[in-house]
Amino acid sequence: MSKSKRDRQSFSIGGVFFLLIVIPLSLMAFLIANGMFKLGVTIKERAVNVLDAKSQEDIQARAVNTANEIASFLMECKKDLQVATIIPSTENVYKQFVAENKKPLWVKRDGKVQQAFVPLYKELALIDRNGNEKIKIVDGQTVPAAKLVNVSIPANTTYKSETYFAKTKNLNKGEIYVSPVTGWYVNKAAFDKGERFSGVIRFATPIFDQNGFAGIIVLSVDYRHLAQFTDQLVPTQAERVFEANASTGNYAFVFDPRGFIISHPSDYHIVGYNRDGTIVPTITEQNIKELTQKGAEALNLFDMGFLDPNLFTLAKESVAGKSGTKIYKFHGITKFVAYTPIKFYASNLPEPAGFGCVCLGVEIEKYNEAMQKVTENIEKESKAWTATVIFILVAAMIVLFFIMLLLVRGITRSLRAEIPKGSEGDVLSSFNDDDDEDDK
């Protein structure tokens, strides 16, 4: 038999060996790659729903947690008011009480954001049975006697129309009155220039002597301590910020039982007072164009059903003490919001509405964009792994090919070594005969 025939038969043996290994390996590689590709597609298809459900649960849980934190904060203020009724009624003691009750607050000073310990209470006042202020501490300083007023007349109060004296004097011992968030309104133009809403929440309770009703104690909480619970919160991230950006659609806000917005990253949505003591008008279907042009966009959720019925439904359900989620449109933006009531109650804030409601919202379009990036990353990872499997398969085939060559040479040498000298002709003849038969 010729050398070429012998080489051909040797290669046939090597080829069989090569195919016996490569075919199963190729099949296995194909199954793995195909499985990984299908897994990537499946994960991509399900990722949005899974992440959406998980994110909704996280946002709902955070809304509940924030509402509980606010309720605890208000409860602390109530306890401080009770303490204020039993401490000596002197200017120095009252000043010390205000000075010792401080909490950390992020503030901007000289263009820099920094944390400072700021008094929790802007005012502490002792008022007699006729409504006359007897002692008043404002921003840590004693108000001179000549500037003390009779607050039974609403026009004499700081914001020209407050009725906390009338609302408190008829309460029983231990009962408290909690005012709405009260402050001067900040319009959009002022807000854009850096002005922020500043106000108070008044906690008041009656005091008694041997003759009965003797007057009231009023403790006025600095509004900023309430606002920081939501103003610095971004629903989809753990880290807090100095001021959330409402333009992102990813922020929190609070409204009271009347439906009035009392905390919002855009302070011009917060309902405040005009300088004459009247409450600013809130946006309705009839005045939205006019007020928007003026930059006076105070909001009451009960008046906003014309923008989306779910806004009214949200407000209605929250004052009924319900938690939940809603999807609504506001200024052309579709939002998902989780809401839950703030479970703090007073004589004028009964169950189930309580102090108000916390809402955490996310703009759905931007939320979907973020999740689309996640699914794209999943797809890239799947393709990368598939490419890796193909590369390994090709490399394995190349390595096996060279191994086959080595085996062929080894087998050829072994066969030659086994054939006795002088018998090559007989062996070759037998191979030739086999070849001839095969040819037939």
In words, what does this structure look like?
The protein is built from 9 helices and 14 strands. It is an alpha+beta fold and about 450 residues long. The protein has one domain: 2-Layer Sandwich (Beta-Lactamase). Strands 3, 4, 5, 6, 7, 8 and 9 form a 7-stranded antiparallel sheet that branches. It has a 5-stranded antiparallel sheet with strand order 11-10-14-13-12.
Write the layout of secondary structure elements.
Blueprint: H1 3-84, H2 91-100, E1 102-109, E2 112-119, E3 121-128, E4 133-138, E5 141-142, H3 164-168, E6 177-178, E7 182-183, H4 188-192, E8 199-209, E9 212-222, H5 223-231, E10 251-255, E11 261-263, H6 288-294, H7 309-319, E12 324-330, E13 333-342, E14 356-363, H8 364-418, H9 424-439
Antiparallel strand pairs: 1-2, 3-4, 3-9, 4-5, 6-8, 7-8, 8-9, 10-11, 10-14, 12-13, 13-14
Helix pairs in contact: 1-8
Provide tags for this entry.
440 residues; alpha+beta; Beta-Lactamase; seven-stranded antiparallel β-sheet; five-stranded antiparallel β-sheet; 14 strands
